[in-house]
Amino acid sequence: MLKLPLILLTILTSISFSFSQFEVAKGEYPFNKIVEWPGQGSILLAEDPTGSKKEIFINFFNNEGETQWSKSIYPKTESSKLIVSGKSEYFYFVDNFEHENNFIYYAQLNQSGGVVSTKIDLLKVIREYGYNVTDDIEITEVVNTPKSIVFYLQLPVKGEGIIENIFVSITHHNNRLYHTKGPSTDMKLQKKGITGPILFAGADESTINFAYASNEESKTDVNFIAFSPKAEPIADQFMKIGSANGIVSQVKSLNLDGSNYVEDKSKFNARGKAIYYNKQYYYVMNDAQSNCLKIYGLNSARKVEQLNECSGRPVEARNPNASISYFELDGELYVSSEIDGSFSAYKIQKDGVSTLSISKKDLEKVQLNPSSFKIKDNTANFVHLIKGTPYFTDSKNMEKQEKIIFKK
Predict the structure, then answer these.
(1) What's the predicted TM-score (pTM) here?
(2) What is the dihedral of CA 280, 332, 212, 251, to 10 degrees?
(3) What pLDDT is attached to residue 18?
């Protein structure tokens, strides 16, 4: 047998060990959070524990196993909200969901560590539609789409009994602001449950879709509001669901979108969820008759049909506690349902809908760490992929660690 020289054997052992773990060293402040940027790496956050400085120190640890850059941003508030998407080459911190003197402040960071700190002038936006008072404006969604970040603004006009729905789209590469107004919401119809809330439906590089449903006499019309990243209106799409009786459910995004930071969760209570994915249109709802999640889409003849088979256990409650959750990962769309503790999940792909054999626990870490779902890790560890290989770190008690160590 050929024997390796001792020096060469030592070098190979050292190289093997060095690639068995990777480290990210602490800076001036202790770590306090780690969030996955899908397809890019991990974002490690640190802040001044005394609160005397409004500074967020960011380490970006990429999927090559390198701390690619470290940056500080200086938010206007103490509760800046992180908006991340695996479909975008940028991520954002939105400082305030309630405007300060008509302004919303945010910071944009790109793959190379470039930082742009800027703001949105809400008064300038609404003046384009004949309004001059920003007091009642509410941000109900912020989504990080492939080409732009989109802020969905609601402006109640109580004297007219309507809510104006305004979409502000800011293109990533040059931070230019565009906006468009969707159809107004009739407050009375919304209160009666006839008109549902407008929710984000999905986006690709050319089209951004929000949508709402109208429910009358057990029939549902799904209305998509489409526009380009430059807020240019695109012909609206419609779906007519025949006999339908959806359970009012809390709709939850498991992507790190702005809706997760909105305190009033009743804004996301709806009888179903419209979806735009892979240039196709879908509608999912918790059906009151079968007590299960039904997924509707268009067949080759452009006719609406149910795409999945489902059956649920009997529910005695008149108004059962129900939810619909969704997220995108690696170009695939996942939808789950819970009706009074009964859980089910599906994956929507180009070639159809498939049932998933997972539990609610499998989704607990998806929002901050989608890779944990990919490799089915239900431990307390945070999963980071390096050249496709999973590495793990314990995300508990991060503030006490001098360095974050990722191990195979």
Answers:
(1) 0.93
(2) 160
(3) 52
